[in-house]
């Protein structure tokens, strides 16, 4: 038998009506399950650790490729507030701002970040994050329950795996391998959750946030993220220029030494030959004078090149304009507790409705299996 379209619609309406009736007749059961999860959400929100969120807003400078108007923007665009996010206009050797979040989440960045000290005002200590959570921090009730329930496999793994607390490196020719211990990797993964670096591609603004149980430590962590990000981006950008600067400085020292020696040799000759009376003396004088002039020209040329390289180093250094500086958060982050309660409420409602709708079909399936 083939049902027409109107009959299909009626069947669909009857199915939805039956589902609605089933839920309505079991509304108190759904309500009880939902209330249970709401209470559980209040428990988790109440006994979860207090979090403080430190925020900062930066505007990273981007430079255009040299040549024509692009060269002018490269030299003066940062001071005029001009910039863009177009990768096609980025200079070689520049890390695009949209890669900053990936850089912050890299293991090498996180490992260096975790070695930096923070001030925990509530405990009156200054130490690193791994040391604080290992030797000074007391787990809350919720954290203790989770560590011995959901986190039990990880707790057992910690007891079984023997971790080396030091980061070791193995060099093979020009390649260097960094090996992190299991404990370091665990600390890194935990720290990635605490910090966040996001780029708004429309405005080009960089938003940095850090969450910790201590307000001052959260601000310190956020500032360390920004400082370390500046350091690594700058080192990557000016690495070649610094190498060139070191070479020019060495050449400058050699040229200066040659010029001083030539100048001293000419002065010594003049002191010994006040009245030049022979052609040999005149030739010697002219030769020393020429050597001095050549040494001076080389010295002067390298001096100019040294100053140009220093200016280039200054111009090429990336600039982060701070629009909103890091500050110590005055109040705790309460939004997270509201989200936890709403999440448990929604989850309880879904569990309640699913239980009411699936209980009878599952029971029937089990009866059919046992009877067969």
Fraction in helix: 55-70%
Can you give the mean pLDDT? 76
**Major sheet: arrangement of strands:** 6-7-1-8
Q: Please provide the count of β strands.
A: 8
Which word captures the global form? rod-shaped
For the record, give the distance between the C-alpha atoms at the N and C termini, rounded to a whole number: 31 Å
Instruction: State the major sheet.
Output: 4 strands, antiparallel
Which H/E pattern describes the elements? Answer: HHEHHHEEHHHEEHEEHHEH
From the helix content, strand content and strand pairing, which structural class follows? alpha+beta
User: With helices defined by DSSP (H or I, 4 residues minimum), what is the helix count?
Assistant: 12
Strand content: 5-15%
Rg result: 35 Å
The low-pLDDT segments are 63-90, 161-168
Quick structural overview:
With 372 residues, this protein is of the alpha+beta class. It has helices at residues 5-25, 27-47, 69-80, 100-104, 107-114, 129-135, 141-147, 152-160, 182-194, 215-272, 279-316, 335-371; strands at residues 52-60, 118-120, 125-127, 168-172, 175-179, 195-200, 205-212, 320-324.
Keywords:
single chain; 372 residues; alpha+beta; two-stranded antiparallel sheet; rod-shaped
How would you describe the overall organization of this protein?
By secondary structure, this protein is of the alpha+beta class. It is built from twelve helices and eight strands. A hairpin with a 2-residue loop joins strand 4 and strand 5. The two termini are 31 Å apart. About 10% of the residues have low confidence.
List the SSEs and their pairings.
Blueprint (H helix, E strand, L loop, with lengths): L4 H21 L1 H21 L4 E9 L8 H12 L19 H5 L2 H8 L3 E3 L4 E3 L1 H7 L5 H7 L4 H9 L7 E5 L2 E5 L2 H13 E6 L4 E8 L2 H58 L6 H38 L3 E5 L10 H37 L1
Antiparallel strand pairs: 1-7, 1-8, 2-3, 4-5, 6-7
Helix pairs in contact: 2-12, 5-9, 10-11
């Amino acid at each position: 038998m083939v049902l027409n379209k109107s009959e299909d619609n009626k069947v669909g309406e009857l199915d939805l009506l039956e589902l609605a009736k089933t839920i309505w007749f079991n509304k108190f059961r759904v309500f009880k399950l939902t209330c249970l999860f709401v209470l559980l959400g209040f428990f988790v929100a109440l006994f979860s650790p207090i979090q403080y969120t430190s925020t900062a807003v930066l505007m990273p400078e981007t430079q255009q490729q040299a040549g024509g108007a692009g060269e002018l923007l490269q030299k003066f665009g940062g001071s005029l507030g001009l910039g863009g996010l177009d990768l096609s206009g980025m200079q070689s050797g520049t890390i695009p701002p949209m890669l900053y979040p990936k850089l912050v989440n890299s293991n090498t960045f996180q490992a260096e970040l975790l070695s930096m000290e923070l001030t925990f005002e509530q405990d009156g200590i200054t130490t690193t994050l791994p040391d604080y959570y290992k030797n000074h921090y007391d787990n809350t009730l919720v954290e203790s329950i989770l560590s011995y329930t959901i986190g039990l496999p990880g707790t057992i793994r910690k007891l079984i795996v023997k971790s080396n607390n030091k980061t070791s490196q193995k060099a093979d020719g020009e390649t260097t391998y960094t090996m992190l211990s299991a404990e370091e990797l665990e600390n890194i993964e935990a720290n990635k959750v605490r910090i966040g670096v996001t780029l708004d591609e429309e405005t080009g603004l960089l938003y940095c946030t850090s969450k910790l149980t201590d307000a001052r430590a959260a601000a310190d962590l956020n500032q360390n993220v920004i400082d370390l990000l500046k350091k690594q981006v700058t080192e990557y950008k000016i690495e070649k220029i610094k190498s060139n600067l070191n070479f020019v400085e060495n050449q400058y020292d050699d040229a200066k030494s040659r010029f001083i020696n030539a100048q001293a040799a000419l002065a010594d000759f003049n002191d010994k030959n006040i009245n030049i009376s022979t052609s040999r003396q005149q030739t010697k004088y002219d030769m020393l004078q020429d050597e001095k002039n050549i040494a001076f020209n080389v010295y002067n040329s390298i001096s100019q090149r040294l100053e140009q390289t220093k200016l280039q180093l200054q111009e090429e250094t990336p600039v982060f304009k701070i629009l909103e500086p890091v500050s110590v958060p005055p109040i705790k982050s309460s939004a997270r507790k509201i989200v936890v309660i709403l999440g448990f409420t929604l989850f309880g409602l879904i569990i309640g409705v699913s239980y009411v709708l699936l209980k009878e079909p599952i029971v029937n399936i089990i009866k059919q299996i046992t009877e067969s």
